[in-house]
Write a structure and sequence with these properties.
Radius of gyration: 17 Å
CATH superfamily: Metal-dependent hydrolases
CATH class: Alpha Beta
Largest sheet: 5 strands, parallel
Helix content: 40-55%
Number of strands: 5
Number of helices: 7
Strand content: 5-15%
Number of domains: 1
Structural class: alpha/beta
Shape: globular
CATH topology: TIM Barrel
Length: 201
Amino acid sequence: MGRHPHAAGEPISSEVRRELRQQAAHPNVVAIGEIGLDYHFTEYHRVSKKDQADTMRQMLALAAEADKPVVLHTRDAFEDTFAILDDFAGIRGVFHCFSGNSAMAAEGLARGFYLSFAATVTYPGAHAVIGAASVIPLERMLVETDSPFLPPQSRRGRANAPRFLLETVERIASLRGLTPSEVAAATRQNTIDLFRLPHAG
């Protein structure tokens, strides 16, 4: 639970803040998110940078209070995201659907975050993301579908679905000279560790 940057234009009232606090404290809530910054402005999404930053800061404070990790939505906004994170030492979490390059990956890792890769690693032109997925430590990697968006290359133009995650795992394994089972086992354990899920390793 949290407040996505696309919804950041709506102020958080004291009543809503209390509700968010109660929700965040619930044991079934394992993270605060998606939260973050999205500067890829479209006709659909025109929330100001200031409103997004204010909301992100409120959500990070909530995560710190609840001792929950954050799921960060960051699009065309890595520099400002890192600057805000630097004001919240100790916050842990994951860069959801990572879209940056190796240098941005290093910045995220230096702040203790995981990076989650979607099927963009299967796109021939996604050189920056492919480069990052090839070099970051496997123990800091997650995988995801971002379903129904971003289907694998073999299914471009159609809706994505969780069952297609294997193609992302296979592509990452190929990039790293590993087996899909090795990537799957590592990213599964990383997910359990980050979100403190009640499952055996």
